[in-house]
């Protein structure tokens, strides 16, 4: 069987230690565009492991804005001229858009023949986020919302990020708890340190304990080498404890001790180890109710409920649906290299009538599935899962006409603003209304804060 262990070095034949130590992403391709080396920074920036990247054509790995039209590396390999500091973006392993500055040059053999190319890329996201903060806004990554309830969350997040307080995020499944946790981490001064997520519901007690605290060699049969736990991995950064409401009372007691002492003991260790990781806990169950039912320790609840963020379910912020739909279509267009233009108005009204028990994740999945069936133009009803249409017929929600009309208006306005790079005057002209009418409508629809 083939070993899945990543290669120790990113390359052969030139100084790999240098390549590994620089903070810019670097990869090389051969004359057939196949990736022949991929350094550690490239792995970190793209979220793609060296193993996944090596031997694959670079455009498959990067999904870059330049790949199709004006690939910098192609230009360099064809002309022999380097490119320096060209800004573009690519899509990382989670489908997020990462802005980078790209430089390229050729690789040649002793005879001066071009044998491939090298591309270095610098992650500009932190810079972009700083620029946004200077402009008085804040970079919340993929997090978007126009509903008043979510606006409060979005406004609170940068303030929370400045502190190191423990945070509790509550909300139904798929409402974006992990996304908010990542946003807090990315705005925190410790953002260079890791964000480590653990799903407390996924593991039985003994495994969860060794996962969180790690173990020393010889701690139990089969523990040949020591393994650091998630607390150790998250040092200086953030430990995201997802589904904390599902943790057993026994594990809750152990976690409480760590939060009180800021130290933990790996299995088989003689000395406790210190931790300075910020804890963000999330739960889709109401922890206060669990406390009342004696299924969650009250003292632990007080420890983690220092700052509390409640994420509303999607059915309570349906005004966000058109924007989320636009965002997902944009993302999947980039990811799958397609040009889907939007959703049919009937589809949007169906979305507005649906209750979305799986929240934003469910909406995202529905759009991604539609991409399989819809090759171009707008997503139609026939591209939606049967269950959604059947449920709509069953519920036949007649009450939602008003909400649907509002959503359609909001979607049109958002599209016009996008087309005009947020110029209210030009968007109003495009929509055939006066600028002041557009402004009033945007206020009514909650697109502008009162
Ligand atoms: N406001 C938002 N804007 C855009 N995408 C979002 C938003 N909120 C959530 N998503 C997307 O929805 C999906 C689910 O989000 P996330 O995993 O953060 O939810 P969760 O509440 O942590 O879910 P679970 O409780 O099941 O772990 C993700 O793919 C995320 O990118």
Protein model, in words:
The chain has 450 residues and is an alpha/beta fold. The protein folds into three domains: 16-123, Beta-Lactamase, CATH 3.30.450; 138-312, Rossmann fold (3-Layer(aba) Sandwich), CATH 3.40.50.300; 315-444, Helicase, Ruva Protein, domain 3. Helix content is 43%, strand content 18%. The protein has 20 helices and 16 strands. The protein has helices at 16-21, 40-46, 50-53, 58-62, 72-79, 125-134, 148-162, 177-187, 205-213, 230-233, 249-261, 287-292, 298-304, 321-336, 345-353, 359-373, 386-395, 401-419, 424-431, 435-444; strands spanning 25-30, 35-38, 83-91, 97-108, 114-123, 167-170, 195-199, 214-215, 227-228, 238-242, 263-264, 273-274, 278-283, 307-310, 340-343, 377-379. The strands form five sheets. Strands 2-1-5-4-3 form a five-stranded antiparallel beta sheet. A five-stranded parallel beta sheet has the order 7-10-13-6-14. A two-stranded antiparallel sheet has the order 8-9. Helix 14 (321-336) crosses helix 16 (359-373) and helix 15 packs across helix 18. It is globular and about 70 Å long. The N and C termini lie far apart (62 Å). The model is unreliable at 1-8 and 132-139 (pLDDT under 50). The protein binds adenosine-5'-triphosphate (ATP). Residues 143-372 form the Sigma-54 factor interaction domain. Residues 18-63 form the PAS domain.
